[in-house]
Structure formats: C-alpha cells, structure tokens
Amino acid sequence: MLGFLAACVEDESEAKKDIELSWSESTFPENDLPVTTGSFTIDVNWAYTQWIIKVEEVLEGDDFIEDITPRVAGSENFGNTTTRVAIRYKANESYSSNKIRLTLQASDGSGQKFEKILTQLGQEFTPLRINLNQDITHQKISGFGGGNMMWGTDFLSVKEIQLAYGTGTGELGLSIYRIRISPIRSDWPAVVNTVKEAKKHGAVILASPWSPPASMKSNNDLVGGYLLEENYDAYAQYLNDFVQFMAGEGAAVDIVSMQNEPDIQVSYESCDWTIPQILNFVKNHAQKIQGAKFTASESFNFNQSYTDQLLNDPEALANLDLVSGHIYGSGLAPYPLAEQKGVEVWMTEYLMNQNSGADINNWNRQEAVIWEETMGMLQTIHTSMISNWNAYIWWYIRRFYSFLGEGEQGTTREQTLRRGDAMAQFSKHVRPGYTRFSSGISEQRAIDITAYKGDNKIVIVLINKEESSIPALEIELPENYTSAKATVTSLNHRQNEVSISTENRVGTLELASKSITTIVIE
Fold it and tell me: Where does the source fall among the domains of life (predicted)?
C-alpha cells in the first residue's frame, strides 16, 4: 500500500510539471475595435498554472479597457482547461486612435508571457472651418505687458528686458512696461535705466503710484490713510514732477496713473480714495500733469462706478485719457460707457500663483498643474479682448509664477518660462495698433478665437480648451494674402512652429489639446 501511494504521488508530481498556457488568437477581433463601447471574448487554454491578463502598456492615446473578467484565474491543481474571458472596452471620445499592449502571463514564475496589440478607432472628424469677417471691426489694440519689480532696486536687467520685449525666437514680444512711482523722490533715479532699455524696444511706459508722500496724507504714513484735500494740487504736481524727471533722463513715461487700487485696504504701501474724491482730483487737478496721458483709477476688481463718474462729467473727461482697472475676483466685463465716450479700457494688473503669495510652499511645480492655471490666465486675456478692452498687463514679469524666472521654485534668472510663452502667443503677434475684427468657427466647440489685422497681416489666436487635439482646422486665405504660419504653446510645446498645409488657398492645421495657437497670415 505504501508503494502504491508513493507511485500516486510521483505520478501526480509528474503531471503537474506539464504546465500549459496560451490564448487562442482566433478568438480576438480581426479588425480594429470600433469607437463605441463594446465587448468581446477570448479563450485562454491552460493547465496546472495560475495566470493574469492585464494592459501592459499604452502605446497610443488612452487605456480603453474597462473590465477583464476574469482578470486572474487558473490553478496549479487542474489541467487541460479552457477559460472564456470577457473583455469590455470604453467608447473613444477623441479623434485619435487608442492602442494598447495586452498581456497574458503565468503567475507561477515560469516566465510564460503572451502579447497582443489592440487598437481602437478614433472618432470620425469633419474639419472645422475658421470664418473671418473683416468688415465688422472692434477695438484697437494698445498692447500686452507686465510689471517691473516695484520695490527695491533689483529691476529687470538688459537681458531680461530683451527676453521680455524682444520679438525674436523664444522672446515674448511684450509692448507695455508698468513701473511704480515711489513716494520718495530720491528713489526715482533707480528706475531710469530699466525704463531706457524697455524704451529701446518701443515699450509704452505706465507709471502707477501706490501712495502719495506720507506728508500729504491723513495719517502721515505710506500705508493706508487718504490724501488730504488741501494737498491735491501738491500731489498732482508731484506726479508731474516724476513725469518731467523721467523725460529729462531720456526715459519718458507715456501714461501716469493717480493711484493703484484705491478701493482696498491692505497692510503695505497704499492710499484710500472714495468715488467723490477721485472725481474731485481728476476734474480739478489732473490737468497739471503734463507730458503724459492720464488714467484712473486702477480699481482692485475694475469697479466701473469708480470711473463712470469721470466719464459722465465733461470736465473730468477732458483730463482723462483712458480708464483702467484690475480683475481680482471680478470686473472682467465689457464697459459700454467707456466705448460710448471713446475712451480706451486697460487691464493694468492681474496674477495667478496657486495662492503662493500666502505661502510660497503652496506653489506646485508640476508642469501639468502650472499649465492648467496658465490656461486660466489665457481665458482672462481672451475675455478681455472680446470685451473690447485695449490692453492687458500682467503683474511682475520676473517671478517664478510669471514670464521670466528669478531663481525661486526651481526657476532660473534670465530664462523664459512656459507661462511667458503662452502670453507671447498674443503679445508677440498682436501688435500695438492692430484692430480686432469678427471671427468664429464653423462648429460650436470649446475653442476660443479672436482675429486681428495690422501691418498687412491677419493674426488669429485660438485657445483649444478641449482634452483632445483637433485633427483639422481649415482657414481660407483672404484675398491678397498668400502664406500662413503658426506657433503653439501647450504642456508639450513652447512657441513651437505648427505645420500648415496649403492647397487651393486653404490652409489646414492641427490644434493640440489644451493649447494656444497663433496663425499669422501674410
């Protein structure tokens, strides 16, 4: 009996060594899987082994396998078995095909492994068409810009000005430079050289004060308080003195503001102004500022009531060249009264920084996170344009969350950042003096479009907010135009050239997902 048992154990051991594993190729779909959701079954043949089926690698697009049943099966105790496996897949919502590597592998360490490439078709796509109507015109563009470092003396260097205001490869093409008017006269010379460099590139200089001199204020302090009415004339003269000083140094200021954010109380250099006080100053004193245009009132969230009074008062309006404001929290909307009065509307400060102003450690360095916020920045620029605003000015040009690095959060001085490249899609190609005109796309999609003309060029800016690329976008070249070129900035591009095929005067290009693309037609 013991001999019989030993023989049985030996026979069973020998049987278990005869491991088998394979899948039946003939049970796989013969063709690419359709774009719609669906399922199919395959047969796995096995003996005396456990196994697993999984998506080993995504080769193109996305993993479209939704469920594999059973995903893990088999046994070391059974031989010659066929298991039918059901594989369910998701619909492909994109226009690109999906491709994966599916594997069947023994989990007993024998190393047996089988692979199968599965492809799912993408959505069929009818090319979108850009529609242009140059007969319907909108606002004139005054430019796009950013701010100097407002405090201290570590202002933008010659190379940083070149990167920010130059229009060469990799440069940003800004055209407006915002600087601070210090409430201390002895500070004024420090800003001269950086302004001179910007002027070499044709930059328009906007000078904004955060506070009048402390001696002119109710609290004799640079923080808070208000300008005493008996000092309105003296303050107007102070602003005029700055304009004249800069002009004398060969660093002329083009536009001077009366106050940065008069409607918010903060713990840094500031001054409070009521609406009647602003009207009084602009109406009765602003004319003393000579040699530069004048703007008011840079409200924290472009509260139009702070400038409506100026536009509705003929004497105040005579001293006002443009209205300005910021868009923190709200205020990004058309300004019909300003348009009616023929006064330009400028957005003079905004920033997005993942709340790292509260704590620098809030900044997430992941490029995907930064790009998602940058798409938000681009949305504000687009909305400014379709609101008929004339200029858009970002906060600091050089900051880790801005256009040029400054050495913090992994950035490097005198190098452009991807967010700067995104701004350049507007600023380098939509130049001061260009006019926005009517444009659209043949199908309603999550794509923002604006179009501009000037210098015998047509510039089209497209922000694709969709998760998928747009395989084909067509533009018919208008009469008297013969060529088209384009650049793109996205998570994977930085002002990269885009291929445009032109046939029978129709240009065709692909729009990358979550991107901004600028087409220039000449």
Answer: Bacteria
Catalytic residue among 171, 269, 298, 349: 349
* Phi, psi dihedrals of residue 304, rounded to the nearest 5°: -65, -20
Question: H or E segment at 241?
Answer: helix 232-248
pLDDT in tens, 330-370: 999 999 999 999 999 999 999 999 999 999 999 999 999 99
DSSP-derived secondary structure for 119-169: EEPPPP-PPEEEEEEEEEEEEEP-EEEEEPP-SSS----HHHHHHHH--ST
Which of 261, 298, 344, 510 is an active site residue? 261
Mean pLDDT, rounded, for 493-504: 93
Look at residue 274 in the predicted model and tell me its pLDDT: 98
* Alpha helices per DSSP H over 265-366: 275-284, 305-312, 314-318, 336-341
Q: Tokens 């008996």 belong to which residue?
A: 230
Bridge-based pairing of strands 98-106 and 447-454 is unpaired
Q: Report the alpha-carbon distance of residue 388 to residue 390 in Å, rounded.
A: 6
Q: List, for residues 116-158, the tens digit of each pLDDT value.
A: 999 999 988 889 999 999 999 999 999 999 999 999 999 999 9
CA dihedral 111, 112, 116, 117 (to 10 degrees): 10
Residue 197 annotated to the active site: no
Is position 349 annotated as part of the catalytic site? yes
Q: pLDDT for 16-30, tens place per residue?
A: 468 899 999 999 999
Q: Which residue has the tokens 């049987």?
A: 15
pLDDT at 4: 43
How many residues are present in the chain?
Answer: 522
